[in-house]
Amino acid sequence: MKSIFNVFGSALLLVVMFIVGSVSAAMSDKAISERLAPVGKICVEGNECGSAAAVVPSGPQSPEDIFTNSCNSCHGSGIMGAPKFGDAAEWTVRLAKGEDILIQNAIDGVNAMPPRGTCASCSDDDIAATVKYILENSK
Description:
Elements: H1 2-26, H2 29-36, H3 63-75, H4 88-95, H5 99-108, H6 124-136
Helix pairs in contact: 3-6, 5-6
């Protein structure tokens, strides 16, 4: 009986030592630093970025392209109250405030729509042209 307790006690001691060793390793400054490291890094044009490839601008986009790529997901279906593309009644209500206000809301964001919709690379002029495209197709 005594030898069983010795074997069990020895095994228990090994398990405790393993756990303590594992916890110590997980709590080392290096391990903590690695867990808290950023997932990625941002490379700003003009800065040294190591092996990161520079992002090449895609060139100018037409208002139709911008709508298709950045606006259609919400304005195509009317999700979260977005006025639907082609629905004259919905756009007429919004246009009553004035086209300039409508464009500014698209630039700044309004209700559930984030600033510039989902086209962060679009200029103010791009947004204005896209709003005008939507309005022209919603009469």
